[in-house]
């Protein structure tokens, strides 16, 4: 089997998403091969020993090494600008492994309070069960990060833009604070996608994705990815994943490999459409507030201009009438479907207060700025005119 690598060539990112990391068998297949195997055989006991000791390259066992998964890891690492990557079964497996790989009992983590519900659970409830203290702060307030630091602080964690409010945090500034206190910064970059924001270039130590979202982007499979320097992955992530086994299946890796080939086409189109939809709805009388990265009225527009190359496929809408108004709006939609997923080819919409953030108290949701009237719209590949027509007619029912 031969490997074709473009790392030593100055290829554009779009090209690397088609070719990087490809492994070909002796059959010379055009599409990447799907290796559905649990394990591998060795020519001799000596070769097996050398492979397990890391003295001979090759694959060992699908829990932690598989040719198809390795192709996905290398391709997304090349696009992200990371030295190394490790794939996981889901996005939350990636988040959990990235944090647990860095922390132990007695340590402290500081995180932005505006988080996806499951991420906040890991930070505020799961990690403390293992002796890791946590502090949640207003991520947009740099002084709050500084004031939360303790001698035992080891990790900063944030989402930017945040789920579901699209709040944006100045990654480079938070990364600088982390470096000053000797902490590692982990950034969940899902809402931006790897196309529009590069946290590693902004000073983050690690970036995580739910590959389920834009990377697949077609509603087919689950996946997660952890990216960073080779030293970061080897020191903090590799052994944890190898021994605990939150593995990505080879089939899912193969699906995600094919998805990477069209990622720029899909996300660029979805972002353009989201901007058109946001502009069309911004002044609607039934919307109390509209938040979209890229619009001049976004609360962190100046930060977005510095750290993001594009907007997002997501729009946050505050519907008049609270939960009742939001439900009337959602139920009146015809083309756009109610679903808690995002980054899909199909436009999807959800009511976070009763879905992704329903387990939190009203006070906690208020702290995260998740109101009863807030809806999160994930814009797909449909024609913007059709989406606007559907949204406007639904708003008229509120």
Give your account of this protein's structure.
By secondary structure, this protein is α/β, with parallel strands linked by helices. It contains 16 helices and 14 strands. It has a seven-stranded mixed beta sheet, with helices on both faces. Strands 10-11-14-13-12 form a five-stranded mixed beta sheet. Strands 1-2 form a two-stranded antiparallel ribbon.
Q: What keyword list fits this structure?
A:
398 residues; 16 helices; disordered N terminus; five-stranded mixed sheet; seven-stranded mixed sheet; alpha/beta; single chain
Which consecutive residue ranges, at least 5 long each, have pLDDT under 50?
1-6
Q: Assign an overall shape.
A: globular
Instruction: Estimate percent helicity.
Output: 40-55%
Number of DSSP E strands: 14
Note the total helix count: 16
Average pLDDT: 94
Structural class, from helix and strand content?
alpha/beta
Largest beta sheet, briefly? 7 strands, mixed
Distance between the termini: 60 Å
Neighbour order of strands in the largest sheet: 3-9-8-7-6-4-5
Radius of gyration equals 22 Å
